[in-house]
Fold each of these.
Amino acid sequence: MTLMTMTVKQAHLTVPLAALRSVSRQYGALSVLQDVTLDLHAGEFVSVTGPSGSGKSTLLSMLGLLERPSGGQVFIDGQDAWALSDRAQSRLRGETLGFIFQGFHLLPELSALDNVARPLRWAGISRTQARERAQHTLASVGLGARADHRPGQLSGGEQQRVAIARAIVREPALLLADEPTGNLPQALWGEILDLFADLHARGHTVVVVTHDPLVAARAQRHVMLQDGRLASDQGTRPVLTSPTGR
Ligand code: ADP
Ligand code: MG
């Protein structure tokens, strides 16, 4: 698969691209995340694993600003995301974060092209320009020839690639994927994982939630959750050089 070169906005290396500070999340009396502190730096490729119900999806939704934490703070690009106005928070989410949901979440009545163009239209980009960029992004995930197909006319692997194209069309620095191989036959995992490796290589910081060790093995840093707590955090991180030592 050939990928076109893209420039991805990179946060300054000394400020974490995303950080959780003592984040907790409760649903009623149920404590789903407890006191999670985590720094993610630009250039990382991180896997998040843990048993079912350990809080993986909740952790990802905290990083993606999909839900407000019950306690603690979420920093994106150095900004305390829940202290921002709604408008500033939406802008930050749209410009910095790309989310790949478990189960694709494509709109069935729209073509692949229009699904991918939607985030651009929300950002105020003209229809013509949005469709041009969406076409380019679909081509970059190997789906240039499928742009006019609706999700129902595409295979599971193709739908996942459309979902990935939609997540990257605004070139977000941080790409968050929840079980991206979970709904696909194992024969297709390789091509989706290669795609994530390519996205990482072209500058996206990537966080992949998975319950599969083979998927996790593609990442360089491995975060493990157990009962809503950070149970381990291992692997390589980019070397950070900063005169202030931060
Ligand atoms: P994982 O992705 O690791 O399987 P989740 O983060 O989805 O775990 O969920 C962790 C726990 O939180 C589970 O027990 C789940 O049932 C519960 N949970 C998740 N979302 C909600 C919700 N909206 N309301 C109530 N409980 C929830
Ligand atoms: Mg989950």
Amino acid sequence: MRLDVVTIFPEYLEPLNVSLVGKARARGQLDVRIHDLRDWAHDKHNTVDDTPYGGGPGMVMKPEPWGEALDSVIASGEGRPTLVVPTPSGKPFTQQLAVELSEKPWLVFTPARYEGIDRRVIEEYGDRLDVREVSIGDYVLAGGEAPVLVMVEAIARLLPGVLGNAESHRDDSFAPGAMADLLEGPVYTKPPEWRGRGIPDVLVSGHHGKIARWRRDEAFRRTVVNRPDLIERTDPAAFDKKDREMLSILGWGPGPDGRFGRVAPDVEE
Ligand code: ADE
């Protein structure tokens, strides 16, 4: 997969040389290219921003440097990239979107500073490319670079061969499939006793069925406390008899429409 990032802070993307993404680059699984937007700003001060039309606080990123930068990046490759525009007013970045983007051959990220990029840039490339305006959460950061790091890490770990163990993302919280709509439960490793604390016996029982059931029960326990909305929105057909028993223990049951909701006071984790 090829990834381009156009930014006024190339050094902010240094973490892409480290850890999982860094190793994927070194192995040639990821072709990451970082570009300095100011290379396409031609005045004496390499200006990339100006005051907003209509007034108001802050500055807006000028269209010309972005246009030249994106034309140049697009012309340097085969085919059309998907343009990912980080903005707090975008659609939420979810595991599902990470999976979708991980299947694209080429992504170009345009992290902005200030109050964002002149709208005409998004419109211009929207006519030619698949453009995704994406928010990583309901908070406002000073720029889109940290969101790019977040998205690239979520996407890169899904690429074939990037994680050591291909099974590793099967049980991820938010992974499509068996554990869909549940948070992952707790995990343990050696030693079997630490500061007087043991581990759940079932995990050393060797009984795979019981372990799987225990993990799912713990996932319910955690999800009802931290993300009750995930259970409320789940089609109840996804809950088997054992799931319903666990939900009932946790004070949850079906409402008039069949969907599950809290029917008794919260059970603490
Ligand atoms: N830029 C500033 N805040 C952001 C957010 N929450 N998501 C994506 N890009 C952003």
Amino acid sequence: MFIIANWKAYVEDFEKAKKLVATSKKLARSRTGTLIVAPPAPFLGKLAAGNISNVAFAAQDISASTGGAATGEATAAMYAASGATYTIVGHSERRAAGDTNDTVALKITRSLAHNLTPILCVGEHERDREGRYLAFIREEITTAFAALTAKERLRIIIAYEPLWAIGKTAEHAITPNDLAEMVLYIRKILAELLPGKNAMHAAVLYGGSVEPDNIRALAAHSGINGVLIGHASVDAATFTALVQQLS
Ligand code: PGA
């Protein structure tokens, strides 16, 4: 199971950031899955320096550029040099700030070029009765995969994060049944994009109001390979309770 702590911009205090990483390292020692922390960019290098723990670090986003005259941009090369080994791409909060499916595809290419494993976020704004949201998800995934080789495609982790479920509380998250259906649907799309039977083993995660109260039910009945956690990852006690539910 993957557990990804997406701190977003919640953590502005570096002392708090250090404590959260210490908590994560302690938690990682007693479980077998992969625990990944995605701190804000200015903290990442310091937190990941000399890291030999079981915790891995992810960029919350990367630049679509390859460096040069691009004021304010942080590139894949910089993140790799700072100790990140994963990068979140296409998070809905970045898409809201202008990332298109094509930008996301480019960011995946940039990530792979620096050996950063992309965590591709996809998710519909709302569920319409006609089922147009299904085509929306398909488009997000197929555009992201289009330019990649089979070997590159196999490295991508998918995080399904419906926008209507993000940043709320456990009762607003998706139900395990609806999640199970969506995970099957995503694996069906992946079956068209990945060689052989790899779609069955691809990492498909869920994010959107995962909390200690719902994580077990969501993980048990849906076929997901992990979770992406936002607000519940920035409080040490809540995050600990949450991780322990999965251990
Ligand atoms: P949330 O955020 O857990 O606060 O809903 C998840 C995400 O946006 O990655």
Amino acid sequence: MDEGLKLETSENPGSPCAIIRPGGSSKGRSEDNPYANALTQFDKAVSHLNLKRGVVDMLRCPKRELSVNFPVMMDNGDIRIFRGYRVHHSVVKGPTKGGIRYSPNVTLDEVRALAMWMSWKCALMNLPYGGAKGGVIVNPKLLSSRELERLTRRYSTEISVLMGPESDIPAPDVGTNPQVMAWIMDTYSMHRGFSIPAVVTGKPVEIGGSLGRTEATGRGVGFCILEALKLRGIGPKNATVAIQGFGNVGSVAARMVQELGMKLVAVSCSKGGLYSGDGIDLSSVTRHLERGGCVTNFAGTDSISNEELLTLECDVLIAAAVENQITSQNADKIKAKIVAEGANGPTTPEADEILSEKDVFIIPDILCNAGGVTVSYLEWVQDLQAFFWPVEEINRKLQYLMAKAFENVIAAAKQFRVSNREAAQILAIQRISDATLIRGIYP
Ligand code: NAD
């Protein structure tokens, strides 16, 4: 083999897959880097398994990465160049699945980490997918609707070499929504000459979206919290809840926990948050948001910072914003008894250790927010068979799959004497490793 092409392994430093060594102690390890954090978690989970070295090295690396720089015509006639990514982490168990993020903070390492977590999440939920993620470095709030549409159509075209209902199926994530998915579906369909709804999920219902998809992630978060409260012997009635992030996941989770009888005491968005010990009136906050506000400066509540929200006295903290919010800097100040990871990667490995010493019950991201990809899977299945189910059917299937995964994680945590996160990753990684070896290494 040509030395230049040799894939170096984690035992062979210098490889892109070995930037971080087991235990996460090697030079270059940064708590701020989501991919470094994902690899540290991976190495920890793998240390409990007896996997083939080559399979471990294969799973440390994304399968393929696409970077695109592309032009967009702005409303004023200027041409601006944007950078986007699409990363496939694993293609062993089926087509790849994962959201598309529009944010000025997108980096390739962030997309790699999110793609890896998607592989674990799909395997944990027993969905026939590998993990993927995409992102564009852009603040969508600074673009007009026409500019956003042109950016989306061009980015979709750029990544269409990877995308397809049998190869790679995007979905919404931070900064994207059902309308963006509709533009992706339309662009892909126009290139093929006929409608292909199964190419994306999280679409509007009018064009093949699934009933219950918008609420699915928040619904799954609510379900996991109920189960965690039971395990901790806390009654849901009046259990207090604080939520960081009030987007798709956070706002639906807020509604769910209130419907389950819990008391929502704080919510936040990127600019800050609000607190009310008597409970927050969700309908007026939502109306305020629909008028274009953030969840700050709201009558009858106290304004708080995101940092203050994370360290509030409460039973449940739902982290539903972005990665790296609970870190070595603030983990010891967290007072919640349960941390529900609505977001992907909100807790760093350093913070994990601190929370574990404090006996905080963590519902790990790949379980807690898996309701979204689960109903995305149901949407894809409905699109492929062109037959659609009522929302009761969707919610029943979601509840069944979430309950099974939750039960499996708790059982694995006991069996391996590990944290819930390690248990969830152990189950997922073992399944992908088994599938890899059953398929065999081509040729
Ligand atoms: P969104 O864009 O709808 O909302 C994000 C929210 O977080 C907004 O309220 C924003 O103001 C806030 N926010 C952003 N940065 C913040 C910061 N630094 N501090 C505090 N708040 C901040 O995104 P979403 O779809 O709700 O996704 C939120 C998280 O959930 C992400 O980690 C995403 O990957 C994950 N997730 C989303 C889905 C889904 O179905 N949308 C599914 C699984 C996981």
